[in-house]
Amino acid sequence: MDNIVTPTEADLARLVPAFYARVRQDALIGPVFESAIDDWEDHLGRLVAFWSSVMLTTGRYKGNPVAAHLKHLATITPVMFDRWLALWAAVTAEMLSAPKAAALQDKAARIAESLKYALYFRLPPRPGSAPLSR
Fold this sequence. Notes:
Helix content: 55-70%
Low-confidence stretches: none
Mean pLDDT: 90
Shape: globular
Distance between the termini: 36 Å
Radius of gyration: 16 Å
């Protein structure tokens, strides 16, 4: 990607807090985030680092998104991913150029699909193998 379609660190530093402010107000997914996040300042910093790593290959993020979401599996539903993506599309389109917004929207859709597979799709154990624990 060239710089025209790649968000900058400054873009991400503005976008992520604005997006999560919208998420926190959302009737469907806001309560899940509010109950899961104790320190929003820290969480937003980690999310900026995540998007920096994903979009700019900075390597700043050192977490495990699947493990983080698995802790809240009882309260997360697949439809919530669709709502998250709709809000992400709206906020990225409002705040960034169309090419930058599209790049972030595409990446988010792929990440959401991967997370849904990791959280909800489990192959049955092979005959004779021990079941995997979470």
